[in-house]
Amino acid sequence: MRDSICSRLPVDYTFCSNMIWTLTSRRLLSLLSVLMPLVCALATPTLARAQTDQSVYTDALINGWQNWSWATVNLGNTTPLQSGTDSISVSAGPYQALYLHQTAFDSTPYTALVFWINGGATGGQLLQVQATLNGAAQTVVTLPALAANTWQQVSIPLSSLGVQNQPDLDGFWIQDRSGTTQPTFFVDTISIKAQPPPSVVNVTVNAAQPVRTIDPRHFAVNTAVWDADFDTNNTINLLTRMGALALRFPGGSLPTTTIGPLTPQTATPGSGRRPSTVLRRSPPRSARKPSSPSTTAQALQPRRPHGSSNPMSPSTTASSTGKSATSATARGRPTLTQ
């Protein structure tokens, strides 16, 4: 663009660069009406979403989770298994629990605590689940009595545990609620389920369809009358090729805000302007037509006494009202006195 617009010399490169930047900016702004709806449609929702589930236990504790249990726990139990090579065996006395802890994290991207549980050879265990926020236990969720020798998947919404959309979720436990010693039970494949992905949004954009017509007055260039190249043919050609329809003169450089359209006018010889192509500005509407020079001169001209051959000679003449009028002062300027 610089080569096409600024190819002619001589040229003020600062002035030309400013015009190029102005033109480029306006072209970009003209695309906003098309781009903004597309950006809004594709914008990420304010609700944060996790990419995947956060695994807690798969054959071992992972992702920084730790065993803080107050029951007899074996993290490397080999049978029974829900998947993989290991599971967790839990032998709990009265109100003892399998307690897994993590550094506090934001639960907003997640929806549920999910795990598999097996009642072992006996079954019938009575258990409850609680999650913690910064170490403080939240809402209790009770589990039905466990089935013997059967793996069951348990999914508890974080909202039911009282920890949905919280900044400091740091653990959970599976606890005896009977107050008696429980037969050994088994837990496997523990995770915190991520939010589901957002639904697919299909956006169709017809780039050939006008969305909004830009007011042509926007295609103007800010400039100043004292620019050295303001009234040259090169400047006129540049503005014409840019498609600028008007000029703006900020900062009080002219009485009016905008002039246009850009019409080449030839300077009048003897007017004090150099022979070149200039931009003509219409006068403000508030300008008044000046008084006629002849009328002004007549108002200042002293009355000439009848028969006097020299109106500027010192003389005194009686008027018809009996008052005198002096036609000249010591400095030779005509004045009127009564």
Written overview of the protein:
With 338 residues, the chain is of the alpha+beta class. Among the domains are: 2-34 and 211-268, no CATH class; 54-194, Jelly Rolls. Helices cover 16% and strands 27% of the residues. It has helices spanning 2-5, 13-30, 32-42, 158-161, 233-242, 293-300, and strands at 54-57, 66-67, 72-77, 87-91, 97-105, 110-118, 127-133, 136-137, 141-142, 151-157, 169-176, 185-194, 220-222, 246-248, 258-259, 264-266, 277-279, 316-318, 324-326. The strands form five sheets. Strands 1, 3, 4, 6, 10 and 12 form a six-stranded antiparallel beta sheet that branches. Strands 2, 5, 7, 8, 9 and 11 form a six-stranded antiparallel beta sheet that branches. The relative contact order is 0.12.
Q: What's the gyration radius in Å? A: 47 Å
CA-based shape: rod-shaped
Give the low-confidence spans. Answer: 1-15, 44-48, 256-338
How many helices? 6
The top-level CATH class of the domain at 54-194 is Mainly Beta
Topology (elements, then pairings):
Elements (H helix, E strand, L loop, with lengths): L1 H4 L7 H18 L1 H11 L11 E4 L8 E2 L4 E6 L9 E5 L5 E9 L4 E9 L8 E7 L2 E2 L3 E2 L8 E7 H4 L7 E8 L8 E10 L25 E3 L10 H10 L3 E3 L9 E2 L4 E3 L10 E3 L13 H8 L15 E3 L5 E3 L12
Parallel strand pairs: 13-14
Antiparallel strand pairs: 1-12, 2-5, 3-4, 4-12, 5-11, 6-10, 6-12, 7-8, 7-9, 7-11, 14-15, 16-17, 18-19
Features:
alpha+beta, six-stranded antiparallel beta sheet, 27% strand, Jelly Rolls, 338 residues
